[in-house]
Amino acid sequence: MRRALKASLATIDHETGSPYASLVIVATDACGAPVTLLSTLANHTKNLANDPRASLLFDETGGSGEVLEGARGSVSGILEATDDPQKQVRFLNRHPSAASYAGFEDFAYYALKVEGAHFVGGFGLINDLTAQELTTDISDAAALLEAEAEIVEHMNAGHADAVQLYATKLLGAQNGEWRFVSCDPLGCDLVWGETGLRLDFPHRVTTPHEIRKALAELTRRARS
Q: Between 3.20.180.10, 3.30.420.60, 3.20.20.140, 3.90.226.10, what CATH number should domain 142-223 receive?
């Protein structure tokens, strides 16, 4: 979920009551719950206005020839409009091109109140997850979240070289224009083009001071 840039959205058709699937671009809020940007003109948004129950399928099978052996997870809950500015910023950091239409009157941000998930990691690897297992506790991280925008700007403007090292040396990704797009108590998210990466911190952080120490430690690891 933290790595995903897109997902399949399942809603209940407001006219027929049948399942309806569509494709949406996604981000996550600080606790890891999905956030998306929808147009009121779209069928899925009309469906949600009638019944907010929804499911998002995150597919990490990529171009694998053995698709059913890849990882995927269906996350279910209530998908409703949100005016939380932090969720909006996190979404636009991940999808900067969406800024060109995000302000249109017929678009609104939606956040999923996670109720659970069904994860399939391949043949025989199947697990049901609770909301608590799937999301991150942020109740003690107010200071970190208040500073998130500043941290993101600081990393991209002043430590772009470290961000590249995180992607290539610690996560094994190709060289590219990797951007630091968000952070939370357990890790940070990097994006380049159509690829998202997740980098876990060495330990849980809840303040700007703690995240600076964690990022410095990761930089040392990458350079060594």
A: 3.20.180.10
Q: Where are the domains of the chain?
A: 6-134, 142-223
154, 146 contact by CB (below 8 A): no
- Model-level pTM greater than 0.90? yes
Domain 6-134 top-level CATH class: mainly beta
pLDDT digits (tens, 9 = 90+) for 200-211: 999 999 999 999
Span 165-188, pLDDT tens digits: 999 999 999 999 999 999 999 999
Separation of CA 163 from chain center: 18
